[in-house]
Specification:
Pfam families: Rieske (PF00355). The chain contains three helices and ten strands, in the order H-E-E-E-E-E-E-E-E-E-E-H-H. With 210 residues, it is an alpha+beta fold. The strands form two sheets. Strands 1-10-9-4-3-2 form a six-stranded antiparallel beta sheet, covered by helices on one side. It has a four-stranded antiparallel beta sheet with strand order 5-6-7-8, with no helix packed on it. It is elongated and about 90 Å long. The N and C termini lie far apart (121 Å). The relative contact order is 0.11. The protein binds FE2/S2 (inorganic) cluster (FES). The site of FE2/S2 (inorganic) cluster (FES) has 11 residues, from loops. FE2/S2 (inorganic) cluster (FES) binds next to loops.
Length: 210
């Protein structure tokens, strides 16, 4: 055999080539996987950032921000002490929650967390009166006032104004924004003079104390 003749493959050379090809494929796959992973992370964190900014700046629809007074809506035949009820009000997209505390107090709130809009749940067994709880980042709201008691939510829950008829049925009749009293919410939605409402409210509270 001359020195220019093609050399037969050395024993094991085919296996080496196959192994090399396999390594190349794995390296390419892991590159793709890393790129995909980075893309997913960027998309998710971008989405969260946009959502957070949108919630913070009020771009997203806020509970009960429609014009005018919403229509009254019967939400339950009865709500017993310790019970809660999920419902929608004032619109079909507006998640809300009603709770009846053990002393009979009935309270209604938006069930959309004021942090990043997760669903708020009722935890009856927590504390002396239960609490409203957002599992996304451990946000906690006072069941009696809707104010934030723990976690990152920047403000209290908007309220849903509930009334109870003599037959025990429960109706939602309006909403109040975070920090607004029920009376202020009703006044605003009915187009009444907000300042006059506040004066009337203060006078009413004064006469109750007297
Ligand atoms: S979304 Fe509720 S605490 Fe973050």
């Amino acid at each position: 055999m001359s020195v220019t003749d093609p050399q037969p493959p050395a024993p094991g050379a085919g296996a080496d080539a196959a192994q090399e090809a396999l390594h190349d494929r794995i390296a390419a796959d892991s590159l793709t996987t890393r790129r995909d992973y980075l893309r997913i992370v960027a998309t998710v964190s971008g989405g969260l950032a946009v959502g957070g900014v949108a919630v913070a700046s009020g771009i997203l629809h806020r509970h009960g921000d429609g014009d005018g007074a919403p229509e009254p809506k019967r939400i339950a035949d009865r709500i017993m002490p310790g019970e809660s009820l999920a419902f929608r009000y004032p619109g079909d997209e507006d998640r809300a929650i009603a709770v009846r505390m053990e002393d009979g107090t009935l309270a209604g709130y938006s069930a959309v967390c004021t942090h990043l809009a997760c669903a708020v749940l009722w935890r009856k067994e927590r504390g002396s009166e239960g609490e409203l709880y957002c599992p996304c980042h451990e946000g906690i709201f006072d069941a009696r006032t809707g104010e934030v008691t723990a976690g990152p939510p920047p403000r209290g829950l908007p309220k849903v104004i509930l009334i109870e008829q003599v037959d025990g049925s429960v109706w939602a009749i309006g909403t109040a924004r975070s920090g607004e009293s029920l009376r202020e919410g009703l006044c605003r939605q009915q187009g009444d003079d907000l300042r006059l409402c506040r004066v009337q409210q203060a006078a009413g509270e004064g006469s109750e104390r007297a």
